[in-house]
Amino acid sequence: MSLRWRVALGLALVAALVGAFAAVGSYVTTARQLRSGVDETLLARARTLDPLGRRLGTDRVPPLDRRRRCPSPAALQATAAAQLVSADGQAFACVQGGVTLPVDERDVEVARDPRGGPLLRTVSEGGVSYRQLTFGWARDIALQIGRDLSEQQATLERLRLRLALLTLAGVAGAAALGWFLAGRIVQPVDRLRAAAENIAATDDLTTPLPTDGPGEVGSLARSLHTMMGALATSREQQQRLVMDASHELRTPLTTLRTNVELLQRAPDLPEAQRAEILRDLDLESRELTDLVEELVELSTDRGSADEAPEPLDLADVAQAAIERAQRRTARAITLVRSDDQPVMGRPRMLERAVSNLVDNAVKYGGSDGIEVMVEGTSVEVRDHGLGIAASDQPLVFDRFYRATTARTEPGSGLGLAIVRQIVDRHGGEVWARNLTGVDGATSGAAVGFRLPPAPPA
Hints:
There is one protein chain. With 457 residues, this protein is of the alpha+beta class. It has helices at 3-49, 105-112, 150-202, 215-265, 271-300, 314-329, 347-364, 415-425; strands at 81-86, 91-93, 119-125, 128-138, 141-148, 310-313, 333-338, 342-345, 370-375, 378-382, 429-436, 442-450. The protein is rod-shaped and about 150 Å long.
């Protein structure tokens, strides 16, 4: 069932419940008022007929029929039935050809004790309902008078019909209004659904989504639009990563295949040449392994879900990365710290970022020493190599980008891209610049990042 039908039926159900409660309340109230009016009429008539003059609040004694002590016919006008009830339960009609009202023990009790009553109840005789009043009339005699309720019942039947029609009309009107309002509400959702189905059919994530809906619908559309933009960007990045990865993998794979074919075609190669080819195979396989590992880490975001952020001292993180690099390269790497502040981060990820910066300096920074500067919430690795060309500085953090002077060196071009990804995940920023000597000439490169400080405890 569509949302439009659900809204229309929901409003119709609400209208039906409200109409039913209102109709029942109106019917019950009207029925009580009509019955109360009949009761007041009967009691008023009884007060004019009461010879005891005490029960019903009057001293007036009407003329009596001498034979059966009934009130005169003139006094019984506007009553549908009247009869006397004796203490032994016998009934004597006071109206010629009138209806005989039912008598029970309560009526007999009123006859035995004329001061009892009055007794009001609804009875049925001959398929007609009567409102009956029994009250003390004389010694061992009670008088019963009745009022026909056919008129009141007809009124109530007409009222029931009218209330039912009004309720049905209200339900129909509420359903129509709900259908109209739901159409206005669902229209932006329908446009959004159509756009989503078009995207699913064409696989075009650049298809614009309508974002002009009101309230929550518009907010949902804008959120979906933002999500589609993020998905389109992610797909574009994945496609670029696959293309760049295939390009970067082609060179080591070609070298490996060439060396293997050479060994297959020339099994009698001199030992020195064979050893050199084997060394090339080992070097290329290691470089290929490193490249695959970096590709996996860069594309799958591995490690980010395994670590929870915690307060860290960047100097401690840098020291761990320096010690590992010194064990691998035996290069002189110095840690310089000043006014360092704690940051909120993931230890292994940030250590990998500093290690990549140090490895980059080791590869391209010449043979001199390397300094790791930790100041505040920033880390900067300085070397004393040829520096980075001004045109290359904005691009060194791109995937697979390698400066012209570094293309003959081993590496995948992913190390600094991983650094930027890690820093972006921590809400920081990266930079690359050249160092200048006392004579104004370039004396090396400085590559680093800055993170937001940890919130106060």
